[in-house]
Design a protein that fits this description.
The protein has ten helices and 15 strands. The longest helix is centred in the first third of the chain and has 20 residues.
């Protein structure tokens, strides 16, 4: 493998955020990314995909496509997997795991069975070529193989990320129903949250939205505080030029994160719960942005207009632990406070149709997203300027 070898990659993202990911990849100077259901395709060398792991805020996984082939039944799946040049990616000393998904194939209905057939093919190829077979490690494999079967077509990938990319490494304190980091980053992007204006989350919980906003404002690479699966690949460890290029990329990201900057616009992380606020403070400290945030113990209904312009961005409760009447009252109280923020923007990830009553205006943006299995709405409102007195 050389730094100029070209591959095809598929970058996955939270459902409904493909547009945000595509724009982000263009910003990372990846030419001609192509959107698809659940992610974005692009072609390029391995270091380009490694950079996506480090810098893409909305990406969940980065998959290198190895092969596509007909897989009408288990035998065809085994033979197709056996035809892959596995000695390019693994040695007998490597550990591996296969993660499979199958749909619309009458002969392959169980993902575990499909994964087992691919594993058998891989170890058989390596045993024949090297005289020994690699071991399986489903917890922390050196090489993660991903199989997708749709109808009679199968596709095999290598997972560069290892752990999903939403695991930035800063979530050290948990709260109820935490928002995944990648979805939070997509909310900020799709909601058009300005980086150069004050930012307020009055229902911050563990602080994910405020932390992701601070990371974006400071230009800190989201993957800077974690490691990636490809760093254990024999193909990576045995390629001195690729390894040196990766170390330079990490060093450049570290330097950019430590560079002195002018004071940031205010970033307020508020919540009515002292426990949630304590969790947010610990998470922000682990992310290295606690000095950029202001933590406030306050009720969202008491929100005030302290600056001429800015953005309120929040993920209010959806109602799983509240009665509908209590949730409706919560939204009404929040809506009254938001209506007083003349000249501000409001971005809300709403999981309940009751929120539509909170503000009397039609949203400028209404975008369908999914928070896990829950269908939600990303809503952006522009609060009109105050009318001058008569």
């Amino acid at each position: 493998m050389t730094q100029t070898d070209k591959f095809t990659f598929f970058v996955t993202c939270p459902r409904g955020t493909e547009g945000a990911l595509k724009r982000e990849l263009v910003g990372l100077r990846i030419g001609s990314p192509k959107g698809d259901r659940g992610g974005v395709w692009f072609d390029g060398p391995l270091p380009m995909a490694m950079g996506v792991c480090l810098r893409a805020r909305t990406a969940v996984r980065v998959l290198l496509r190895l092969a596509e082939f007909e897989a009408r039944d288990a035998n065809a799946l085994y033979e197709g997997a056996r035809a892959v040049e596995w000695t390019r990616w693994l040695t007998a000393a490597s550990t591996l795991a296969v993660d499979a998904s199958v749909r619309d194939n009458p002969a392959l209905t169980h993902s575990g069975f499909a994964a087992l057939k691919v594993k058998d093919a891989v170890v058989d190829v390596l045993r024949d070529a090297l005289g020994a077979r690699p071991d399986v490690d489903t917890n922390r494999p050196d090489v993660s193989i991903v199989l997708h079967v749709a109808g009679e077509r199968a596709a095999l990938f290598l997972d560069l990320a290892g752990d999903p990319l939403h695991r930035r490494g800063y979530r050290v304190a948990m709260t109820d129903a935490p928002l995944k980091e990648t979805l939070a980053a997509a909310v900020l992007s799709l909601g058009g949250v300005a980086l150069d204006q004050p930012f307020v989350d009055p229902m911050a919980g563990g602080g994910t939205l405020a932390i992701e906003h601070a990371l974006a404002v400071r230009g800190i690479a989201p993957g800077l505080r974690r490691r990636f699966g490809f760093e254990r690949w024999p193909a990576f460890l045995g390629d001195e030029m690729t390894r040196a290029g990766w170390e330079r990329a990490r060093a450049e990201a570290e330097t950019a994160a430590m560079a002195p900057r002018a004071p940031l616009p205010p970033i307020v992380c508020g919540d009515v719960s002292s426990d949630a606020l304590g969790a947010a403070r610990r998470n922000a400290s682990a992310a290295g942005v606690d000095g950029d945030l202001t933590f406030e113990l306050a009720d969202a209904a008491a929100l005030e207009r302290r600056w001429d312009a800015g953005t309120v961005c929040t993920n209010p409760p959806y109602g799983e632990r509240l009665q509908p009447r209590d949730l409706d009252q919560l939204y009404r109280d929040l809506g009254r406070a938001l209506q007083c923020l003349h000249g501000w923007s409001v971005v809300v990830l709403s999981g309940s149709p009751l929120f539509s009553r909170a503000l009397p205006w039609k949203p400028a943006i209404s975008h369908r997203l999914y928070n896990g299995p829950l269908e939600v709405r990303l809503l952006r409102y522009e609060i009109p300027a105050a009318k001058p007195p008569r």
